[in-house]
Amino acid sequence: MSSQDIKDNPDPTPFDYQAEIYQKGLRYERPPITFDSTKWEALAKERLSAEAFGYVYGSAGKRETSDNNLAAFKKWALIPNRLVDSEFPDLSIEIFGQKYPYPIAIAPVGVQRVFHNDAEGATARAAAHEHVPYILSTASSTSIEKAAEANGNGDRWYQLYWPLNEHNDITASLLKRAKESGYRVLVVTLDTYILGWRPSDMDNGYNPFLRADEIGVEIGFSDPCFRAHFKEKHGKTVEEDVSAAAAEWARVVFPGKSHGWKDIKYLQENWDGPIVLKGIQTVADAKKAKDIGVQGIVVSNHGGRQVDGSVASLDMLPKITDAVGDSLEIIYDSGIRSGADVAKALALGAKLVLVGRPYVYGLALQGEEGVRHVLRSILGDLDLTLHLSGIESVSKSHLNKDVICMVNGNPTAN
Ligand SMILES: Cc1cc2nc3c(=O)[nH]c(=O)nc-3n(C[C@H](O)[C@H](O)[C@H](O)COP(=O)(O)O)c2cc1C
Ligand SMILES: O=C(O)C(=O)c1ccccc1
Q1: 278 Cβ closer than 6 Å to some ligand 1 atom
Q2: Whether residue 303 has its Cβ less than 6 Å from ligand 1
Q3: What does the pLDDT average to over 313-319?
Q4: What amino acid positions are annotated as catalytic residues?
Q5: CA separation (Å) from 273 to 11, 178, 182, 397?
Q6: For residue 303, which atom of ligand 1 is closest to its CA?
Q7: Where do the FMN hydroxy acid dehydrogenase domain residues begin and end (predicted)?
Q8: Ligand 2 near 302 CB (within 6 A)
Q9: Given ligand 1 and candidates 115, 341, 357, which is best to mutate, with the most ligand atoms within 8 Å of its CB?
Q10: How many Å separate Cα 47 from the centre of its chain?
Q11: Of 198, 320, 322, 339, which sits most exposed with the smallest number of CB within 10 A?
C-alpha cells in the first residue's frame, strides 16, 4: 500500500479512514495534519499572516459571544448506552428532499483567497469529494460559475448577501446565475448587513473585502448587472477603477441597513427552490420564518463575529426546535469543533450542522487536502462517538433525550 491509499479509495467510510491511518502508522507514516481538532487553530496561526489569522479567528468585541458558543457545548454531555447490538451508525439525513450521507455541510465563508491560493475552488472540490454540501458565500474570491465547476457533481447551495431593494436587479442576477450553475438551496444571511465591531481587524486596518485585488469581490465583478450599475454611477468600467468598484460592491452587499420581513417575498418569487434564513437566534424570529413560509433556518450567531456579549447559539437551539422544529428544517452553526459537538447539536434538534472556522484552518494548512482532512476528522470522530454511545443512527440521536443530559442541571436522561 502506498501513501495514496485513502485517496484511492473513492468512498472510504469515516471508519475506513481511521483503519488506514493506523495501518500507515505501522509503516511509520504519519498524517500531515494532526487529528487533534483543538490544535488546528494554533497551526493555522503559524502559517497565516497576522492579518489573515486575525480575520478568521477574530470575533466581535471582547469575544464573549464566541467564548459563549464554545462554552455552551460543555454544558451538555452525551450519555453512552450499553449492549446496543448495532452496526456502525447510519449518519445519513434527508433535508429539502435530498438524501445526504452525513449531517454536516460547509459553512459559507468569504474571501478564501486570503487563506490559500486555491481559495473556494479547493473547498468546493473537497466538499464534493467528501459528499458534504458546499455553501458558496456572496463575498467570495471565486465566481459563482467557477466555484460550481470546482464542485462538479457535488451538492451546492448559494449564500446571499442581500442588496437593498433599490438593487433588486442585482439580486435577481445573482440568483439567476446561482440557479443556472446548479446551486440548489438559497441561504440568506440576515445578521451581516454591516460587519460587526471586530478589534483584531481594526487594529490591523484589515478588511479583505475592500481590497481591489479581487479577494472578495469576484462575484460582483463578474456580475453583468453590477457592472452596468457601476458604469452608470461612476462612468467607468470595473477594470478602469477596481478600487472604486470594490468599494461600490461592498456598499451593495453590506449596505449598513437591514431588509424587513416583507422583503422575503421577493426572494420567494425569484428563487425556485428551498430558502433558508441564516442567523436566527430567537423563537419569535423562528416563528416569523415559519409563518412567512421559508423551508429552513440556520440557528447561528455568525460564530460570534457580529454581536458581542450575546447568547450562545447552542443555548437557543432547543428552544427554537421546540417552537418550530416540526414545520421547518433546523440547521445549526457556531462553535462546532468536533464530532461530539455535532452529536450534541443533533441531539438538541439540528438536522444538519455547518462547519465553519475548522475547515478554514484546514484550507490554510493544506488547501483542498486540508479541508478534506478536517471534514474526515470530524466525521470519523462523529461516527465513533455515536457508535460507542450506542446510538444507531443520526436520525435516532435527533432530539433524543436518552443520549444527552445537562451537566449540573436538568433535564437529565432517564
Ligand atoms: C472568516 C469567516 C468568514 C465568514 N464569511 C461568511 C460569509 O461570507 N457569509 C456568511 O453567511 N457567513 C460567514 N461566516 C460565518 C460562518 O458561515 C459561520 O456562521 C461561522 O463561522 C460559525 O461559527 P464557527 O466557525 O465559530 O463555528 C464567516 C465566518 C468566518 C470565520
Ligand atoms: O467575516 C465575516 O464574518 C463575513 O461574513 C464576511 C464579510 C465580508 C467579506 C467576507 C466575509
Answers
A1: yes
A2: yes
A3: 97
A4: 302
A5: 29, 11, 11, 28
A6: 23
A7: 29-407
A8: yes
A9: 357
A10: 22
A11: 322
Question: Mean pLDDT throughout 236-252?
Answer: 95
Query: Measured from the CB, is residue 192 less than 6 Å from ligand 2?
Result: yes
Average pLDDT, the chain: 94
Q: For ligand 1, is residue 358 a contact (CB within 6 Å)?
A: no
What interface predicted TM-score (ipTM) does this complex get?
A: 0.99
Tens of pLDDT along 75-102?
Answer: 999 999 999 988 889 999 999 999 999 9
* Residue closest by Cα to atom 29 of ligand 1: 109
Q: Does 47 score more than 60 pLDDT?
A: yes
Q: Map out the domains of the chain as residue ranges.
A: 38-406
* Region of poorest pLDDT, from 5-9, 121-125, 254-258, 402-406: 5-9
- Among the bound ligands, name the one nearest to the CA of residue 138: 1
Nearest CA to ligand 2 atom 10: 110
Q: What is the pLDDT of residue 6?
A: 45
pLDDT at 402: 82
Architecture of domain 38-406: Alpha-Beta Barrel (3.20)
- What tens digit of pLDDT does each residue of 163-220 get? 999 999 999 999 999 999 999 999 999 999 999 999 999 999 999 888 767 688 999 9
* pTM summary value: 0.96
Nearest ligand, CA 356:
1
- At residue 214, the pLDDT reads 63
Is 161 marked as a binding-site residue?
Answer: yes
Residue 387 Cα to ligand 1 midpoint, Å, equals 30
Record the cell numbers describing residue 180, joined without a space.
443556472
